[in-house]
Amino acid sequence: MHNIDDVETEETLTCLRITVHHPLHEIKNVFQLIHFNKREKHMVEDPLKVGRDTKSCHISLYDLRVSRVQFSIQAFRHFNSSKLFFEIKNLSKKGKLIVNNTELEHLNKVELPKKALVRFAEFQLLVEKEDGESTESFDTFFELARTPPCQEILCAPSMSPIPETGILINACTVPQQCSLQTPVEMEECELK
Amino acid sequence: MHNIDDVETEETLTCLRITVHHPLHEIKNVFQLIHFNKREKHMVEDPLKVGRDTKSCHISLYDLRVSRVQFSIQAFRHFNSSKLFFEIKNLSKKGKLIVNNTELEHLNKVELPKKALVRFAEFQLLVEKEDGESTESFDTFFELARTPPCQEILCAPSMSPIPETGILINACTVPQQCSLQTPVEMEECELK
Predict the structure, then answer these.
(1) Whole-structure pTM value
(2) What is the Rg, in whole angstroms, of the alpha carbon atoms belonging to chain B?
(3) Which residues of B lie inside 8 Å of A (Cβ-Cβ)?
(4) What is the ipTM of this complex?
(5) How confident is the model over A8-22, as pLDDT tens digits?
(6) Do A76 and B89 make contact, defined as CB atoms within 8 angstroms?
(7) Do A107 and B84 touch (CB under 8 A)?
(8) Which of A4, A24, A143, B44 is 20 to 30 A from B149 in CA distance terms?
């Protein structure tokens, strides 16, 4: 046991609370590599990569429709602010990434708002930021959603990131399942 | 030999031409790990890290005044543009990074203008972007400058990146050597 006098003052960590959903998660077990309900620490200097490749990604999704590296989330600080903010960048050459109502192509990026719905293939990730004090590291905390979280967030206009010239998608035209797949791809999935 | 019919059409690569200067480079050999006058290819997905740590940095500077990871340069694309742009982020907890006239603290970032003077410790790097077609990779090309390149660039106001609330430094008050060290640090350097 350390003497409490000798230990550095503990700082709270900013936490990205990520609620994930996939319509076929029970059949395809796409989240088998995710550690749910457990805080995991990441250094602010390293981009947090999400994708299919278990070697280069910190968060791996077990699905062939996901790119080897699908996207990254990176911490940064605004000028004259000690708070951590995050930026999301699409690293997939094939797939689009939709952040709330903004469509990102390969290498496009936006700042994550406090609450963001990230969509690609049939995945939905609701990313919510809880501010902390440390600027050295941050936590992630994954939770599983059995129903798609899209309905709640997409019709709240203040939740959109502000791209300079990005494509805005009309939130309320998103279909019930909020899926990005084409009908052909849906059939492919169902056949697996 | 490949048959030329079978080979993919060659794309030109965006090149970051980086002219480096350090007042004591001949004595301290701070650039001994840099490959000068040679194009080197980097994948757009990976941040290009510059610092003292040879393991985690792509570009290593041999000087104890440099942080293990001093800064990163990352490619991205603006919405509706096929061109590569670059962002520079200060990853040093101890040292400031000055990009033209803007001072970056830990985790602050700015978009690199077409021509940027990057300064930290006693280093000066003039970074010039030459546009190419590929969005998969880019090149770097390092050259050594025996005289500091600061004078030429710092008095051209259009060359500044545009931070939202960053600290602007009056370019023309930068001393002759454009060095960032305090007098004490200068003495330390001279004693080595």
Answers:
(1) 0.80
(2) 17
(3) 44-45, 47, 69, 72, 75-80, 84, 89, 91, 93, 105-109, 135-136, 163-167
(4) 0.79
(5) 788 999 999 999 999
(6) yes
(7) yes
(8) B44
